[in-house]
Amino acid sequence: MKARLVYGGLAATYFLSWALFAGVGVVLNLLCLPLLLLPRREMLGGTVRRMIRGLFWFWLHWFQLARCVRITWRGFDRSYVERTIYVANHPTLVDATFLLARLPDTICIIKPALMRSPAIGPVALLAEYAAGETGIDLIRNVAGKVAAGRSLLLFPEGTRTERGTTLGMLKPGYALIAERARAAVQLIVIRASADLVPRGRPWWRLPSILPGRVEFTLDRRWEYDPARRTRDLTAEVERRLSEILGVSSQ
């Protein structure tokens, strides 16, 4: 009986956390919508990214205070270097927001459909996030932003990992961006509860076990090397990630 009461309380705070996220997100995007009409809106990019980081930081700590998700950071006490491409596996919907709360002045690539959404697009546009799936134009655009001093968070799987699997097929676009921007690649390994919003599971379906768990490990770093081929870098990153997770990529 006690276990059911505890789970019920955690479930209530879990749903409240998502309601808080959605409510703040809608209000923020409505406020940002008219700012898109400004002639030099790119000047707001740094301020908006700091604001996003602060809000995600609040949401991250809300989850921890509510005790419905336990979050562990390993190796993140190192100093951060600008113009870094952070690549990670993508087991859960919440990992990107938690990482953006921790990594300074970092942009990401989101799907075009999300960029067109009035509930997400205005803030993402002001923050100078990139939209796209693949292609040389996207690589050129993002590499230019990284070369200008920003960092990039990218999930080479392209989407969340399928439930029941550990790693999806990795796409090589990050290595091309790193080569063009002459930037370092930093691997982040994420482990999460199996049913904490993986691909194919909507956020409103409660995890079978609460609190959920997410662990972030700052792993190996590859400095820019003009003599290294992009396919070799891709193979090294994939090999390292598969080795740590104990699987072979699909």
What does the model show?
It is a single chain. This protein has 250 residues and is α/β, with parallel strands linked by helices. The chain has a single domain (2-205, 212-245), classed as Glycerol-3-phosphate (1)-acyltransferase (3-Layer(aba) Sandwich). The protein is 43% helix and 17% strand. The chain contains eight helices and seven strands. It has a seven-stranded mixed sheet with strand order 1-7-6-2-5-3-4, with helices on both faces. α2 crosses α3 (95-102), α6 (136-147) packs across α7 (173-181) and α7 (173-181) crosses α8. The protein is globular. The termini are far apart.
Draw up the topology in text:
Layout: H1 2-32, H2 45-66, E1 69-74, E2 84-88, H3 95-102, E3 106-110, H4 112-115, H5 121-126, E4 130-131, H6 136-147, E5 151-154, H7 173-181, E6 184-192, E7 212-222, H8 230-245
Parallel strand pairs: 1-7, 2-5, 2-6, 3-4, 3-5
Antiparallel strand pairs: 6-7
